[in-house]
Design brief:
Catalyzes the reversible oxidation of 3-phospho-D-glycerate to 3-phosphonooxypyruvate, the first step of the phosphorylated L-serine biosynthesis pathway. Also catalyzes the reversible oxidation of 2-hydroxyglutarate to 2-oxoglutarate. The N terminus is likely disordered. 30% of the residues lie in helices and 17% in strands. Bound molecules: nicotinamide-adenine-dinucleotide and 3-phosphoglyceric acid. Nicotinamide-adenine-dinucleotide (NAD) binds next to α6 and α8.
């Protein structure tokens, strides 16, 4: 088995590197040569990568093929911490600061193996169907609503995110905004920036003793709950799941109960069909007169026309919006009616804090997310490990060691239908299956097996036999 580029026979005057590149260019199983490996070379990992479990000295680093062939596209200014991890693997990394218009995204996604995005880039089925080589998507953020997770799973594309690394940052922003709204600090600051001294106390309040109503008591909501209580606020929350309240926070039985009892309402639910316009005219009508509404979840969760009405009528004393139904691809002067029809009207409202989706935008959060998601991508690309995946079963195996030179790791993503394991094990059965794990999630199942005593020619045969099964979604053989 070739274990390094220099061991590969040189054909047609090509250098070993050129050869290894040419054999591994096609990553998609539907392509000739393709593969995820039968014809590929093994390259030693850079020192940066510690692998999974066990001591570094004994771990055998698996690579799907020559790392230089792995193309990674990172959009939306993914933090350098993540870019560095991927570059140190030797992958080809292109990093772009903004998201891309759909036509450019489709063009670029066609030949990448890995894509990293944040909340803005829409990876719909229409886009993903062009991604012929894509094996994995990294959402360098919490939300994954921007990705068609089902389409991706059915196409054998694994999706990872960072479930909580920016939760604290969002919670702290909420605390800052709650105080700013209660004291009208945004308006006073804007006035003074214009040269106007306007010292008022009317309609300005302490937050101590006021009730905060949190809708969605997950990672962000729970962090916020603790911070708010420490400032002397009473916390109630509404969630579709029964959850234990932190401190003295109390769960209420309905959204209306929360709206009726809160001085401040903050929204921390995911974007779902059920959360679209969760807060509209009828819900605002339930809120206390002179209360405040804050949304840092997704733009679809609040009906903005209803919010504008509530603000103009004085039902709401203030609001803070960090997210919007349509958000620009990058930085610049974009917040006008062409983007969202009510933008100018919003800009004219008093005691309304508008922020450009920065809830998770802190140095701490972005650098932690960069490391977390890039690590998950490397483990998936190099070793097939799906721990933390949001659309595939979570499957992992103890690592192979240097003492196991003729072992290969087989990954078989397949339709979750009866009889597949029997057929796969018939194929693997000519070898010793050292360890194996399989799990399913919905229509898709993921099998990982380490088999021993496999020679180079057998790898291709093994691969082809698995590819020929009708249940196949994607086969990868790593060695
Ligand atoms: N503004 C930002 O920069 C920023 C940063 C992080 C997260 N977010 C958004 O905030 C959302 C929440 O983040 P999180 O980490 O707390 O998510 P999470 O998954 O930990 O928590 C979400 C909670 O909402 C609950 N929920 C779901 N549907 C609900 C409904 N209809 N009514 C009430 N509760 C419901 C869930 O049961 C869960 O407890 C994310 O999905 C993301 O869209 C925004
Ligand atoms: O889903 C998230 O984590 C937040 O909405 C932040 O998204 P961003 O990384 O695009 O700022």
């Amino acid at each position: 088995m070739p274990t390094a580029a220099q061991n590969i026979p040189v054909r047609n005057g090509n250098s070993a590197n050129e050869l290894s590149r040419s054999v591994s260019n096609s990553f998609n199983p539907t392509y000739e040569n393709l593969s995820t490996s039968p014809t590929a070379s093994f390259s030693s990992p850079p020192n940066s990568y510690g692998g999974v479990g066990g001591s570094r000295a004994s771990t055998k680093q698996l690579k799907p093929f020559h790392t230089q062939d792995i193309k990674v596209l990172l959009l939306e200014n993914v933090n350098l911490s993540g870019q560095d991890i991927l570059r140190k693997q030797g992958y080809q990394v292109e990093a772009i600061k903004s998201s891309l218009p759909e036509d450019q995204l489709i063009e670029k996604i066609q030949d990448v193996h890995v894509i990293g995005i944040r909340s803005k880039t829409q990876l719909s089925a229409d886009v993903l169907k062009h991604a012929k080589n894509l094996i994995v998507i990294g959402c360098f953020c919490i939300g994954t609503n921007q990705v068609d997770l089902k389409f991706a799973a059915d196409a054998g594309i694994c999706v990872f995110n960072s479930p909580f690394s920016n939760s604290r940052s969002v919670a702290e922003q909420m605390i800052g905004e709650i105080i700013c709204l209660a004291r009208q600090i945004g308006d006073r600051s804007n006035e003074l920036h214009r040269g106007v001294w306007n010292k008022v106390s009317a309609g300005c309040w302490e937050v101590r003793g006021k009730t905060l109503g949190i809708v969605g008591y997950g990672h962000v909501g729970a962090q916020l709950s603790v911070l708010a209580e420490s400032m002397g606020m009473k916390v109630i929350y509404y969630d579709v799941v029964n959850l234990m309240g932190l401190g003295t926070a109390t769960q209420v039985g309905s959204l209306n109960e929360l709206l009726q009892g809160s001085d401040f309402v903050t929204l921390h639910v995911p974007e779902l069909a059920e959360t679209k316009n969760l807060i509209s005219e009828a819900q605002i009508a339930q809120m206390k007169n002179g209360s405040y509404l804050l949304n840092a979840s997704r733009g679809s969760v609040v009906d903005i026309a209803a919010l504008i009405k509530g603000m103009k009528e004085g039902k709401l004393a203030g609001a803070a919006l960090d997210v919007f139904p349509n958000e620009p691809a990058g930085n610049g002067e974009h917040f006008h009616n062409q983007l969202n029809s009510w933008a100018e009207e919003l800009r004219g409202l008093k005691n309304l804090i508008l922020t450009p989706h920065i809830g998770g935008s802190t140095e701490e959060a972005q650098s932690a997310i960069g490391v977390e998601v890039a690590d998950a991508l490397v483990k998936y690309v190099n070793m097939g490990i799906t721990s933390g995946a949001v659309n595939m079963p979570e499957v992992t195996l103890r690592h192979l060691t240097q003492d196991e030179p003729n072992h290969v790791r087989v990954i078989y993503i397949h339709k979750n239908v009866p009889g597949v394991l029997r057929r796969v094990n018939e194929i693997l059965g000519n070898h010793n299956v050292d360890k194996q794990m399989t799990d399913s999630r919905g229509d898709v199942a993921y099998l990982m097996a380490d088999i021993s005593s496999v020679n180079t020619s057998e790898i291709k045969e093994l691969y082809q036999s698995l590819e020929d099964l009708g249940s196949r979604i994607r086969t990868r053989v790593l060695y």
